[in-house]
Specification:
By secondary structure, the protein is mostly helical. The chain contains 4 helices and no strands. Helix 2 packs across helix 3.
């Protein structure tokens, strides 16, 4: 059974992809803002970026060397998220029914 709206039929891919993309661009924002804001700044925008991205940074920190500068760690997180999104796309393309 297929849906009349293709967006409803592919929500299982679109929702995780959107969440990964939002996290990826939040990491980019944190890296750019980190060039101008000190690490312990009370700025509420900076605290938002830190609060949203710190759990993901904690996940990837064992995969990177300990001597890595924090901004490089954030940019490596962007790379990891990009490849997660590519892997998700390939997974859904491989599992999708063949048309034609």
């Amino acid at each position: 059974m297929t849906s009349a709206n293709p967006l409803l039929a592919s929500w299982l891919y679109l929702v995780p992809n959107f969440i990964l993309a939002a996290l990826m661009y939040t990491l980019v924002g944190r890296a750019l803002l980190g060039l101008f804001v000190p690490p312990e700044s009370p700025n509420y925008i900076w605290r938002f970026f830190v609060r949203v991205t710190d759990p993901f940074i904690a996940l990837i920190s064992p995969l990177t060397p300990k001597a890595t500068v924090p901004v490089v760690m954030w940019l490596m997180g962007v790379v990891w998220l990009f490849w997660l999104r590519v892997g998700l796309l390939y997974l859904f393309l491989a599992l999708s029914p063949k048309v034609g």
